[in-house]
Backbone:
């Protein structure tokens, strides 16, 4: 038996607009199932991450994230594993592909697409 709703936690170190766009595009493919979005933008330190993790524990569901700090990303994944919440980095597979093609590592700058030059 399927679900008619699910909790979707979106954890970002920037605005979260990438997560919102990707998650809504995916959720739209499931008719009759609504996602209850929990948005955590600008999560850039341990205290902010702890607050998001506490809320994930209170309303378990899927977790999507666009964190570029490897230590905080690992901490989020470990917490999700402990909670039993499926967790996925939305950007990491794309960054890995870019790195293998370009031959250079990313700079790990949160919100880089919004920086003025």
Residues:
């Amino acid at each position: 038996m399927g679900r008619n709703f699910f909790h979707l936690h979106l954890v970002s170190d920037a605005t979260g607009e990438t997560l919102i766009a990707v998650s809504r595009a995916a959720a739209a493919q499931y008719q009759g199932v609504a996602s209850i979005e929990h948005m955590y933008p600008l999560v850039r330190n341990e205290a902010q991450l702890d607050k998001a993790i506490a809320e994930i524990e209170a309303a378990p569901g899927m977790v999507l994230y666009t964190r570029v700090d490897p230590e905080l990303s690992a901490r989020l994944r470990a917490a999700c594993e402990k909670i039993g919440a499926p967790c996925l980095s939305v950007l990491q597979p794309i960054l890995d592909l870019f790195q293998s093609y370009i031959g250079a590592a990313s700079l790990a700058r949160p919100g880089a697409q919004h920086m003025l030059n």
Remarks:
- The longest strand covers residues 5-12.
